[in-house]
């Protein structure tokens, strides 16, 4: 009986340790996704999954893109611009802040930002 309790305690401790270590991996944000090559910026101001990346970030990317589209539409309406123009302008702003090595898609081609 004592042997079983000891095993249960070790399994419980191992599971708790796994949860503490693994939980941050599930809490993926856009910065982490970009740094790990799981998401890239596109020259239209939206995000996409770069080459070779798993599809794990689809939901995160869709959520962020929906928010960006809504914001771009507001800015476009306020400034008598198209949503596409606002997206392109935002890409330029976002691009200037991205660290080297971040995936970007420019004119339909994926590249890693150099500087």
Helix percentage range:
55-70%
Mean pLDDT: 82
What order do the strands of the largest sheet run in, or round the barrel if closed?
2-1-3-4
Largest sheet: 4 strands, mixed
Computed Rg: 21 Å
pLDDT < 50 stretches:
6-26
**If helices are DSSP runs of H or I spanning 4 or more residues, what is the number of helices?**
4
How far apart, in Å, are the first and last alpha carbons?
Answer: 63 Å
The coarse silhouette is globular
Topology overview:
Elements: H1 2-26, H2 30-35, E1 40-42, E2 47-48, H3 58-79, H4 83-97, E3 103-106, E4 109-112
Parallel strand pairs: 1-3
Antiparallel strand pairs: 1-2, 3-4
Helix pairs in contact: 3-4
Task: Write out key terms for the chains shown.
alpha+beta; 115 residues; 4-stranded mixed beta sheet
What does this 3D model show about the protein?
By secondary structure, this protein is α+β, with helices and mostly antiparallel strands. The chain has a 4-stranded mixed β-sheet.
Q: How would you briefly describe this protein structure?
A:
This protein has four helices and four strands, in the order H-H-E-E-H-H-E-E.
């Amino acid at each position: 009986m004592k042997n079983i309790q000891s095993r249960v305690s070790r399994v419980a401790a191992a599971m708790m340790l796994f949860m503490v270590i693994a939980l941050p991996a599930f809490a993926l944000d856009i910065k982490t996704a970009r740094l790990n090559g799981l998401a890239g910026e596109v020259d239209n101001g939206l995000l996409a999954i770069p080459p070779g990346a798993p599809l794990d970030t689809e939901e995160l990317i869709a959520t962020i893109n929906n928010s960006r589209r809504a914001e771009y539409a507001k800015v476009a309406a306020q400034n008598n611009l198209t949503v596409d123009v606002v997206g392109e302008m935002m890409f330029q702003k976002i691009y200037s802040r991205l660290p080297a090595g971040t995936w970007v898609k420019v004119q339909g081609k994926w590249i890693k930002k150099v500087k």
